Sequence to fold (228 residues):
Amino acid sequence: DGGITQSPKYLFRKEGQNVTLSCEQNLNHDAMYWYRQDPGQGLRLIYYSQIVNDFQKGDIAEGYSVSREKKESFPLTVTSAQKNPTAFYLCASIGEGQGNYGYTFGSGTRLTVV
Amino acid sequence: DAKTTQPPSMDCAEGRAANLPCNHSTISGNEYVYWYRQIHSQGPQYIIHGLKNNETNEMASLIITEDRKSSTLILPHATLRDTAVYYCIVRGRLGQTGANNLFFGTGTRLTVIP
Fold:
């Protein structure tokens, strides 16, 4: 079945470390997105990419970086510049299917700073 | 993109219909209404979307008022597994806006009671 795979499911980071969250999709979707969710909050957009080798900052891009070298992959790096990285991170993609213009989401990565 | 207003929480008895309202009074003519739900610690799941007409699929029905300023998501026979946060979102059709991203507010926390 097609879908989005995020890994790892749980990730622990020490202060000052960079960590990379993986997001892979086999849906042949062009556009991919990274969201951050804090407890009791909605989703906030970090970065998005509408095509390979191109990406744009979302609302809270500071302290994060991304790459889009392949259509299937959109990894997110949480850098040491991100002062409050503990959160639930969601990757999504969107493609123009038969009448469904909705997102497909991964199952998320929960990042904790220790 | 138009913003939405949803009640923060609702309860529904198991087996009964759950009717989740959403106000989107600033919706423009080319904006769709989307509904997603998020079960705890999972990625949001697409439920349904519509433009003007009422829509029904295997998960739910979407009723959009004639003036399009509000809508209602109906889960016809709620089960305990329907307990989740439900998000109502409005946005233009894929490709008509720059970011194609969806704004997720805090949604409605639906609790299905045995």
Notes: The interface with chain B takes residues 4, 6, 31, 33, 35, 40-43, 45, 48, 50, 56, 58, 88, 90, 92, 94, 96, 100-108, 110 of chain A (CB under 8 Å). Chain A has a mean pLDDT of 90. The two ends of chain A are 36 Å apart (CA to CA).
